[in-house]
Design a protein that fits this description.
alpha+beta, Translation Initiation Factor IF3, 2 domains, two-stranded antiparallel ribbon, about 40% helix
Amino acid sequence: MPTRKAINLAREKDLDLVEVAPGETPPVCKIMDYGKYQYKLNKKAHEAKRKQKVVHLKEVKIRPKTEEHDYQFKLKHVNRFLADGDKAKITMMFKGREIVHLSIGQAILERMVEETKEIADVEQLPKREGRNMTLILTPKAK
């Protein structure tokens, strides 16, 4: 249909002529209420955004000298974070001359990985950053 005829038809019906596919030859247009169309698009986008799950990164800090009870307490926190669908970042902090014994911290982080392997995957292996060593765990896909 010629463009002039389409515009006149849209005006008669008190609607808008909207170009749907501008790249086509000839361009494809549609007669519709553009305001209503924009409103529906916004509603659809808002609904999709509402259903999204935001994943947070929760952090637990431990030290090489952390005792068994405290370690178990921190492990429960990590398990809870993973169960809630959040990522867990375990930071091993070294103070003073503890930095000489990196293997102790590495062993504790590997133990943490081993004890959470049923519910978590390792996103980032233990990595040293200055006086800290970090490990990031993500919940396993269901």
